[in-house]
Amino acid sequence: MKYFIDTNLANTLRLHPNVVFLDCRFQLADSSYGYKAYVKNHIPHARFVDLKNDLSSEVQKHGGRHPLPDVNDFSELLGKLGIDQNTIVICYDDGFLDNAARCWFLCRLVGHQFTFVLNGGYKEWVENGFEVTEEIANVTPKKFEANINDHMVSFISDVKEKQFNDNVNLIDSREYIRYKGEVEPIDRIAGHIPGAKHSFWKDVLNENGRIKSKEELQNHYKHFLKDKESIVYCGSGVTGCVNYLGLIEAEYPNVKLYAGSFSDWISYEENVVNKVDL
């Protein structure tokens, strides 16, 4: 795999001075959970990054519930965490890969090429009996020079222009009941962006919570043609990153994240929302 790393290999690499683990654990229901979990125990020498404070910017009228951080601010953060262009970065969360994938996406967005997601996450790390610690690492800052990959991101103007284009896969990553508009536990309006097809982000994982093989992912996404541009969205640009990773792993060549996602789409009163007939 190009973008995932197994826990066994990660454990072998963890003492290498040029390897940095980023602990991305987070829960929407308790925004303090991630840091509390990190302080309790984490992979040795890991640094903590917070979805709300580090992997997102301030919520405004538009931009969704988790707007992307300013790329210069995020690049500066990487430097403060002891990361430069040559550092190997391994992002992990509890195991669903959503928050780790968001961190991976941002690292790639600012041009960091050696970023990986820990397959199986912290859950598998602990189950394997690998070392954990409560010790907070001493970090020597480095200089990270950003090289922004703008092609990874789509904005609402792109979605409006391409939502009915036969040469574009517009992919909704949320649960099917949310896509249908039957239930909406978070956003004020239920439904999906007109023209979008459904592909639940958790289906990228197997029953053990690990990323499916390349062949399994290619079969999973077979109803989305590879030669099309693929634009992925979710509720706020977090879980959609798992589908983004899955598509990249399945060798789709032109994948973008609509970072504002559905929560950005519905922030514009004029935007239409579709529901599936129940």
Give a structural overview.
It is a single chain. By secondary structure, the chain is an alpha/beta fold. It contains 10 helices and 10 strands. The strands form 2 sheets. The protein has a 5-stranded parallel β-sheet. Helix 2 (33-40) links the parallel strand 2 and strand 3 (47-48). Helix 4 (98-109) packs across helix 9. The mean pLDDT is 96.
Please identify the structural class as seen in this structure.
Answer: alpha/beta
Order of helices and strands: EHEHEHEHEHEHEHEHEHEH
Q: Give the strand content.
A: 5-15%
| Unreliable stretches covering 5 or more consecutive residues | none
Number of DSSP helices? Answer: 10
What percent of residues adopt helix (DSSP H or I)? 25-40%
Shape: globular
Secondary structure: number of strands: 10
Biggest β-sheet strands, sense, barrel: 5 strands, parallel
Mean pLDDT metric: 96
End-to-end Cα distance, whole Å, is 40 Å
Taking Cα atoms only, what radius of gyration do you get, to the nearest Å? 18 Å
Strand order of the largest sheet: 1-5-4-2-3
